[in-house]
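Checked the freezer inventory, then went back to the computational side. Two predictions to log before the end of the day. The first one is the construct we discussed on Monday; recording sequence and C-alpha cells without edits.
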Amino acid sequence: MSVVINTNTSASLASYNLSSTNVNLQRSLNRLSSGSRINSSFDDAGGTAVAMKFNASIRRTEATLANVNNANSFLATQDGVLKNADKILNRISELATLAQDVSKGTSDLALYQEEVSILQEQLNLMLDEKFNGIDLFGAGATDDMTVVTSHDGAQTVGITQADFATLATAVDAYDVSTTAGATAAVAAIQNDIQTLADMRATNGAQQSRLTFAADMLSINKVNLEASVSRIQDVDVASESSNLARYNILQQAGTAMLAQANQASQSVLRLIS
C-alpha cells in the first residue's frame, strides 16, 4: 500500500464506523430510557403504522366498553323500579284478597281501597323514572334502544324500555271497595303480576347479554394491548446487551480513530 499524506483512508473508515456506532448507541439509550422500541417512524415504519391502528382500536374499545356498562346500569336501574313495582302489586293483591273477607263491612273495604288508591298513585309515579334524563319506560309501547357492542360498530344489542304504562293503566282499574270488585281485582292482578315477571325476566336476560358483551370487549382490549406491546415495547434484556456492545464499540472506535490519525505522522520520519 502506498504511503500518502493527502488522504487518510483508515481514519475516514474508522470515523464512519464510530459514527454508525454512536447512532446505534443513541437509539439503544432512547429505547431503554423510554421503554419503547419505536421512538420515531424511522425505527420501524411498518410497525408504527400497525401500532397506530391498534392504539386507535384500543381507545374505541374502551369507549364502547364504557357505553355498554352505562347501558347495563340503565337496565339495573329499570329493574330496581320493577322490583319495587312487584312489591306494590303483591301488596295490592294481598289487600284485594283481604277485601273478599265476608266479615268485612263497607267501612273496612273503604279503608282497603284507600290504601290501594295510594299504591296506584305510587305505581304511576314510577312511569316518570329516568336514567340520566332518559325514560326508563316506554309510553304505552315497548321501545327498543340500540347498544353498540364492538369497537367498529358492526355489532349491536337491543335493550327495552319496558311497556310499564299499560301495566299501570290496568292496575288503576282495581277497585276493592266492594266484594265483587275485590274478586275481579284478585283475578286480574295475577295476570298483571305475570306481565311484570315477564318484564323483569326480559330485563335480566338483556343485562346478562350486555355483561357477556362487556367481557368480550375487555378480552379484546387485553389482546390488542398485547399486540401493541409486541410491536412497541422494548425487550430490556436484549437492548441492555446491545447497549453494552455499542459502548464497547464506541470506546474501541474512538481509540482506533486516534490511532489512524497518528499513522500519517510516520511519513515525517521519511523526510526528516
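The second is the one RB wanted added to the comparison set:
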Amino acid sequence: MNAPRLCLVLAALALPGGVAAQVIDRSAPPAVGAPPRLNLPAIQSTTLGNGLRIYLVEMHEVPLVQVNLQVEGGGRSDAALAGLAAFTANMMDEGAAGRDAFQIAGEADYLGAQLSTGANWDGIVVTLRVAKRNLDPALGLMSDVALRPTFAPAEVERQRELRLAEITQSRDDPDVVGALTFNAVVYPAGHPYHRPLDGDSASTAALDSAVVRQFYDRMFQPSRARILITGDMTLAEAREQVGRAFGSWLPAPGTNAGRLPQAPGLVPHPTAIYLVDKPDAAQSVLIIGGPGMARLSPDYYAVEVMNTILGGSFSSRLNDNLREKHGYVYHARSVMVFRPLPGPFMALADVRTDVTDSSLVQIFWEFGRIRDTLVTPVELTRAKNYIALGLPREFETTRDMSRRTGEMLDYGLPPDYYSGYVDQIMSVTAADVQRVARKYLRPDQMYVIVVGDLAKIRTDIDALKLGPSAVWNPEGMNISP
C-alpha cells in the first residue's frame, strides 16, 4: 500500500466513535442543492439641499468605496448631433479646474484611485473607486472633473480629430458595422436608439467647444443627478463628504434641460434581410432580432429563463447547435437587452463565409423549436439553476453592487426586489417559456443583418426565401442598385 493511501486509511480508522469514512460515488455529478435566498444590505438614501440625491449600500468587508455620479441625459438627448453626450463625457477628464488630462490622471494615481467618465444611452456617468482613507481628496478631484470641466477649444479640436479617426477605424470592424446597421433599421428615424451612441463623421465634425459647453450646462443640474455609493461608509459619512464635494453645485443660470426624449412606437415588421458588403471577408456577421421588451414587464422572469435556454449560456441551444454539432462558429448567443426604453432582442454569431446560409437555417430552426415544443425538464431545471445559483456573484464586489443597485434605480424596482428574485425564477414553467417565446420570438417579424462578402453569400441567402433582401449601409440607408 502506498503512503498516501495508507494515510487516508489511518485517518479513517482514527475517526472518533469508530465512524467510517464517507464513501463518495464519483461516477455521478453531485446533486445541486436548493438556491440560497439572497439577502442584500439595504439601500439607504438622503438628499442634499441642492436636490442631489445620494444612495448608499454599506459593504464593510474591505475599506474600499465605489462612487458613481449619474446625470440624466445620455445619448437619448443628443438630438440632431449624434454622439454629443458621449463626446462631452469623454472631454470632462481631459481638463478641469486648472488641471490638464495628465495632471488629473497623475493625481488619481497618487491617491490610488480609478476615475473615469463616460456616457450610455440614458446618462452621463463619472465613476470613482478608491480606498476609504483617500476618499475625501478623491471626491474633491471627482467633483472638479464633474462640475468644473474646461472644454478648452484646442483640446476639443484634438479630441474631435481623434474621434473622427476612431469612427473611421471602427467602421472597418464587421461586428461594429453589424450592430450599427441593426439599430439603424430596427429603430426608425427620430428614435433615440436609431443613430450611433458615438456619433458619425458628420455629427462629430460639427462639434466645438461652444456646442459641448452648451450641452453640458443644459444637462448637468443637481436635480437631474444622483450619486450611488457602495462600500465602507455610513450614510452620515456619505452625506458629510459628498456634501463637501458637491453641496455647492448649482445649475448654470438660465438653463433648462427639459425631459428626456421619449420614443415613437415600434410597429411589427415582416422579416427582411439587410446586407452589408464586406468584400473578401472570411466570416459573416449575423444579427437576427427585433424590438424587445420593457424591463418592468411581468414576462421578465420567463424571458430570462427562455433566453438562457436559447442562447444566454455556453450550453444553450444556439451554441450547442452551431458550435458543437455543426462547427460553424466559435460562439453563438442571444440576449434580451434591457434599457429604460425597451431594448432589442438579438441572436448573434460570426460564422464562416461558406456556411452563412446554413447558419441562418439553424438559427431560425432554433427559434421555431423553442416556440413549437416545450423545453425538456432537464433544460428547464438547468437554466433556472444557472440563473439562481449565479445570482450571488453579481453582488460580490463594490463595483458589482453598484452596477446592480444602479439598475434597480434606473428601472424603479423596489428596494427588496432581489429578495424574491430567486423564487420568481424557480417558479417559471415550461409552458411559461413557450408562451414568451411565441410572444417575443417571431420568425415572421425578424430583422436579419448580414455583414459579409455578398459576392459569395447573397445568392444562397436569397434562396432561403426568409424575406426580401437589399444592400444597406451602416447608417440605415438602402443602397441597393
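For RB: The chain is about 40% helix and 20% strand. The domain at 272-471 is CATH 3.30.830.10 (Cytochrome Bc1 Complex; Chain A, domain 1). Let me know if you want it refolded.
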